[in-house]
């Protein structure tokens, strides 16, 4: 008898599709087993969501917010259990998994505020009438989540969508079904009405059945650029459907003449290696001056990175980072490094897969200054490519030499260097003297080019969860004092 892993019309039921597992990448143990939702279950969930939507959208906003607040209370009560699940299923260090849960809880107040500020109601007086700007939910929306933040990133779509009055069909990453299941159980405990949130677990077949179903009004996606492009093509010719895409990056971090070498090294490591490099905002390319200052930073960076503690997520002495999501992902990084070496890259610190059967890798740093041109790819792990430069303009041009545009940063003492950089760099997140990871939920979050489609998430998620309606309204019909020329009544 298969586990009841799908949540459809307020009921838990077993998936009728193919079986799949979730594996703890720190030790290879199976942490979750179930079956995918098949196409009929996807259809049933959509029908239930369509039914639930009208009612839910008509609930007073304050009552919808009460349910969302009750979800926040559930999250707070079960915060440690959620953090443990995240650590177990993703290999993320427990300290960091706890910060993910805190981000989920923090999202509630931010989303309520954003909903009011960005999609609230505006009333303007006009002669004999009132003009209104209001916002309506789209209807039934699908949310697709990635594995690297299995709680926080889907939550960043789900919470604003629910506040706005949509019904949500949540399709989590097939690598993190257990965190998704726990999240939806908290929504259930919070009293969300049947059909307002559904959970459709499964692999790509489930994702395709959901994304291609005519019964959805929109899809909010966070994941890889390849999948996002596939969805974009699938949505072509359907202008009435809203598609929000948050995808990867090939993010540059430039360093120009900084006095505080330790602080620079800290910000580079936080940018490149946090979460074992599995953040979409992670620095993939580091541009360092060919100068004594650049040499000193590089030497310290190699030494500090060599000392980074990589260990089991629950280790008493907590690691800086734990395991990557899978052994396959770890081996993918080893292969990426070998490809760059073959193209002429010189390893300054070798990335190594340290434990067969797990996702543990050490950080890698590779000098690619004299390598053959490299493909413009996001390597989603702790491997940092270093470019030494002599000309700042050329470094900025190379930093922009990517089809992506998620995050970028400059470490530099001189404010005019930042102004110069800011005017030229192309990215949705541009930082100065701070790491380029760790973006705030209280700001818009999204990229340009292959990184997104101008529907920024986080604080601006409210924008894609509702559409504006302009109305001119009067209590009674009245004849204008003056009629237009040529008209008699
Ligand atoms: N910009 C952002 O906000 C952001 C945040 C986190 C992660 N990411 C990116 O996500 C990637 C890592 O996450 P991932 O590997 O889980 O992403 P992914 O694209 O493999 O999967 C994301 C979701 O899409 C589903 N999916 C995959 N193929 C599909 C298809 N053909 N049709 C329908 N659904 C499909 C998956 O099952 C999953 O639910 C990285 O590239 C990272 O940069 C971006
Ligand atoms: O992996 C991608 C997300 C990385 C993370 N960004 C955010 O958390 C954005 C804020 C939000 O969505 O609320 C980061 O920048 O580290």
Helix content: 25-40%
For the record, what is the CATH homologous superfamily label of the largest domain? Aldehyde Dehydrogenase, Chain A, domain 1
Provide the gyration radius in Å: 25 Å
Q: Please report the first level of CATH classification, the CATH class of the largest domain.
A: Alpha Beta
Task: Classify the beta-strand content into a percent band.
Answer: 15-25%
| Number of strand segments | 21
What is the third-level CATH name, the topology of the largest domain? Aldehyde Dehydrogenase, Chain A, domain 1
Going across the major beta sheet, what is the strand order?
Answer: 14-15-16-13-12-17-18
> What does the overall shape look like?
globular
N- to C-terminal distance = 75 Å
| Count of the domains | 2
Structural class: alpha/beta
Give the number of helices. 14
Mean pLDDT, as a whole number? 98
Quaternary status:
single chain
Bound molecules: nicotinamide-adenine-dinucleotide, the ligand O=CCC[C@H](NC(=O)CCC(=O)O)C(=O)O
Low-confidence stretches: none
**Main sheet: strands, sense, barrel:** 7 strands, mixed
Q: Can you tell me the CATH architecture of the largest domain?
A: 3-Layer(aba) Sandwich
EC number: 1.2.1.71
Family: Belongs to the aldehyde dehydrogenase family. AstD subfamily.
Catalytic activity: N-succinyl-L-glutamate 5-semialdehyde + NAD(+) + H2O = N-succinyl-L-glutamate + NADH + 2 H(+)
GO molecular function, one term: succinylglutamate-semialdehyde dehydrogenase activity
């Amino acid at each position: 008898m298969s586990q009841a892993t799908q949540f459809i019309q307020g009921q838990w039921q077993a998936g009728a599709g193919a079986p799949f597992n979730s594996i703890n990448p720190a030790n290879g143990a199976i942490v979750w087993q179930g079956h995918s939702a098949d196409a009929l279950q996807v259809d049933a969930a959509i029908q239930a969501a369509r039914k639930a939507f009208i009612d839910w959208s008509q609930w007073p906003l304050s009552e919808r917010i009460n349910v969302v607040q009750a979800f926040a209370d559930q999250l707070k009560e079960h915060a440690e259990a959620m953090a443990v699940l995240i650590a177990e299923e993703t290999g993320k260090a427990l300290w960091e998994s706890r910060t993910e849960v805190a981000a989920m809880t923090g999202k509630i107040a931010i989303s309520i505020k954003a909903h009011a500020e960005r999609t609230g109601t505006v009333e303007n007086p006009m002669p004999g009438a009132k003009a209104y700007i209001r916002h309506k939910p789209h209807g039934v929306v699908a949310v697709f989540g990635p594995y690297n933040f299995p709680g926080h990133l889907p939550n960043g779509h789900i919470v604003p969508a629910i506040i706005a009055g949509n019904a949500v069909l949540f399709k989590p990453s097939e690598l993190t079904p257990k965190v998704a299941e726990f999240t939806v159980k908290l929504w259930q405990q919070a009293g969300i009405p049947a059909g307002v949130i559904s959970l459709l677990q499964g692999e790509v077949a489930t994702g395709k059945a959901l994304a291609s179903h005519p019964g959805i009004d929109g899809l909010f996606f966070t994941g890889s650029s390849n999948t996002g492009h596939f969805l974009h093509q699938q949505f072509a010719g359907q202008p009435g459907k809203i598609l929000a895409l948050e995808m990867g990056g090939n993010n540059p971090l430039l360093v120009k003449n900084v006095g505080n070498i330790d602080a620079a090294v800290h910000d580079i490591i936080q940018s490149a290696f946090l979460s074992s490099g599995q953040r979409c905002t992670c620095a993939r390319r580091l541009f360092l001056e060919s100068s004594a200052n650049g040499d000193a930073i590089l030497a310290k960076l190699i030494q500090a990175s060599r000392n980074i503690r990589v260990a089991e997520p629950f280790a008493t002495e907590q690691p800086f980072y734990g395991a990557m999501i899978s052994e396959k992902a770890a081996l993918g990084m080893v292969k990426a490094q070998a490809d760059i070496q073959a193209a002429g890259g010189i390893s300054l610190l070798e990335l190594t897969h340290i434990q067969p059967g797990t996702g543990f890798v050490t950080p890698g740093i590779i000098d690619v200054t004299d390598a053959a041109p490299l493909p413009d790819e996001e390597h989603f792990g702790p491997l940092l490519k270093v470019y030494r430069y002599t000309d700042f303009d050329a470094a900025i041009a190379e930093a922009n030499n990517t089809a992506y545009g998620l995050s970028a940063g400059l470490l530099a003492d001189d404010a005019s260097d930042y102004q110069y950089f800011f005017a030229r760099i192309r990215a949705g997140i541009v930082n100065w003297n701070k790491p380029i990871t760790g973006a705030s939920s209280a700001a818009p979050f999204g990229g340009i080019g292959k990184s997104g489609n101008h529907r920024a998430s986080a604080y601006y998620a409210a924008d894609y969860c509702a559409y504006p309606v302009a109305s001119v309204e009067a209590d009674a019909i009245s004849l204008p004092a003056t009629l237009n020329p040529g008209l008699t009544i």
